[in-house]
Automatic annotation (TrEMBL):
InterPro entries: ET-Flavoprotein_bsu_CS (IPR000049), ETF_a/b_N (IPR014730), ETF_b (IPR012255), ETF_beta_N (IPR033948), Rossmann-like_a/b/a_fold (IPR014729)
Identification of the protein by name: Electron transfer flavoprotein subunit beta
PANTHER family tied to this protein: ELECTRON TRANSFER FLAVOPROTEIN BETA-SUBUNIT, ELECTRON TRANSFER FLAVOPROTEIN SUBUNIT BETA
Protein location: Mitochondrion matrix
Domain of life: Eukaryota
Pfam families named among the record's database cross-references: ETF
Lineage, top ranks: Eukaryota, Viridiplantae, Streptophyta, Embryophyta, Tracheophyta
Domain Electron transfer flavoprotein alpha/beta-subunit N-terminal, first and last residues per copy: 23-213
Species assigned in the record: Dillenia turbinata
């Protein structure tokens, strides 16, 4: 069984985000980039499934400019067997990504497609659902636990919902998107980092996949949230009560 995992290159989670002066987006020049944390969890889950003997190959996929190769090298160092880079300089919105993933699924024939539930740069939380719809595959989103049954060819997914946990049984092939509590991603060891440099990364373009990229979204403006006012130190309970009564409604 093959497992395909989509990994995205995003601004590192520890970096303070800065909006471009022209307000067209977030500044990414001279900024540390890394693999999206939810994608790390998705890749870790695929690797654990393979290590348990339920899968034969894990394929990492990333889309975007040439720098995405660095993200794929990280995935290979973690343990992925192969990598595919869909090279594109265009801005890729969720529907375009879903169409590209659909084309790759048809060519690679994986039985399981695992994605992070969302990327921390745009927080769209749409790609997994869209690609499941395009493929007409069952989906288990926000997964906090995944159990595969090779004989029955099913995946049992515990997913986090507003009211608690929901358990789904999906017939394979299926799409799963991962939540934070699914696992703790491993660190790539130095020997594996060195080995990853010799692993194959296949390059394709959307045109070669017969995918036409259309921008179905338009970013009008990106702005920073309003800055919070500085806090004050109070000296007594009476002063606290006074401020709560007279100033708590002031924004």
């Amino acid at each position: 069984m093959k497992i395909m995992v989509a990994v995205k290159r995003v601004v590192d989670y520890a970096v303070k985000i800065r909006v471009k002066p022209d307000k067209t987006g977030v500044e990414t020049k001279n900024v540390k980039m890394s693999m999206n944390p939810f994608c790390e969890i998705a890749l870790e889950e695929a690797l654990r499934i393979k290590e348990s003997g339920l899968a034969s190959e894990v394929i990492a996929v990333s889309m975007g400019p040439s720098q995405c190769v660095d993200t794929l090298r990280t995935g290979l160092a973690m343990g992925a067997d192969r990598a595919i880079h869909v090279e594109s300089s265009a801005t890729l919105f969720p529907l375009s990504v879903a169409k590209i993933l659909k084309a790759l699924v048809h060519s690679e024939k994986p039985q399981l497609l695992i994605l992070g539930k969302q990327a921390i740069d745009d927080d769209c939380n749409q790609t997994g659902q869209m690609v499941a719809g395009l493929l007409n595959w069952p989906q288990g989103t926000f997964a906090s636990k995944v159990v595969l049954d090779k004989e029955r060819r099913t995946a049992t997914v515990d997913r986090e919902v507003d009211g608690g946990l929901e358990t789904l049984c999906l017939e394979l092939p299926a799409v799963i998107t991962t939540d934070l509590r699914l696992n703790q991603p491993r660190y790539a060891t130095l020997p594996n980092i060195m080995k990853a440099k010799s692993k194959v990364i296949n390059k394709v373009t959307p045109k070669e996949l017969n995918v036409e990229l259309k921008s179905d979204l338009e970013i009008i403006q990106v702005t920073e949230p309003p800055k919070r006012k500085a806090g004050v130190i109070i000296s007594s309970v009476d002063e606290l009560i006074d401020k709560l009564q007279n100033e708590a409604h002031v924004i």
